[in-house]
Specification:
alpha+beta, 2 domains, eleven-stranded antiparallel β-sheet, about 25% helix, transmembrane helix, membrane, transmembrane
Length: about 250
């Protein structure tokens, strides 16, 4: 599969959508971040837009002595930073996860809830995920799945066609590493900044327009409106004087 990121100016929320296509250029699926108060969550959708899995990214900061490698190479010198990725099914049940990973860890395993091996992930070559310079070396990862018959292998994704959530996990992680800060958090993308700025500008314009209309009505429109209401009342609801009928008494 190949993937592309798209940013719709008027739709699609405030975040870009990553689309996955087959060699025949047919749409395979997509991933998109969703709002979450505890970390970052991504929907893994199929070709018709149905959410098949969820992917959670957790970032943990441990105060104290920093990781010497992360401090020297990545500038992360404020304690230690750990990340974890969790795959959940469409019902929200946890089905697989990574261990606690150090910042930009070059290799790790993915395990199911029983601790059995789902896949092994390894960075190909020696390259810095934070580097913004064009080194001519592609940022590639190798994903290896164990044979189902060997001890300790998980049958969570038994066939090659079932293993796409793992490939999308690695793709999401790799693309986010390009914008990841030494704190482990990910800075806002150009798409997020543009659409957030457009949203703020639209809200400011709306508030200004409401304020201008209100001020204009108070200064110019109140008196004509009052006169119009009084004329309507005089035309359709005129005032009437009624004399009560008193009983007649004879002396």
């Amino acid at each position: 599969m190949s993937w592309t990121q798209q940013c719709s100016t008027l739709g699609g929320g405030l975040v870009p959508v990553t689309s996955y296509t087959l060699p025949s250029r047919g749409l395979f699926g997509s991933t998109q971040p969703v709002a979450s108060l505890t970390g970052n969550t991504f929907r893994l959708n199929d070709c018709v837009g149905y959410t098949r899995f969820f992917l959670d990214e957790k970032v943990y900061h441990v105060p104290g002595e920093p990781d010497s490698h992360a401090c020297e190479i990545y500038g992360s010198c404020d304690g230690s930073v750990f990340l974890q990725f969790i795959i959940r099914d469409h019902a929200g049940r946890k089905i697989a996860h990574t261990p606690y990973l150090r910042l930009f860890q070059s290799s790790f395993n993915i395990e199911d809830v029983n601790g059995l091996l789902v896949a092994q992930v390894e960075r190909i070559g020696r390259w810095n995920p934070m580097s913004k310079t064009c080194s001519g070396q592609a940022h590639k990862w190798l994903v290896k799945f164990p044979e189902l018959g060997i001890p300790g292998a998980s049958s969570l994704f038994p066939t090659a066609a079932d293993r796409w959530p793992v490939a999308e996990l690695v793709t999401v992680m790799s693309t986010r590493d390009g914008a990841r800060l030494p704190s482990g958090l990910v800075g806002p993308s150009v798409c997020e900044m543009e659409k957030t700025g457009l949203l703020i500008a639209s809200l400011v314009f709306l508030v200004a327009a409401i304020g201008a209309v209100t001020t204009l009505f108070v200064r110019v429109g109140v008196t004509p409106t009052q006169m119009m209401c009084l004329e309507f009342e005089a035309s359709f609801c005129p005032r009437r004087k009624r004399t009560p009928n008193l009983p007649k008494y004879t002396v």
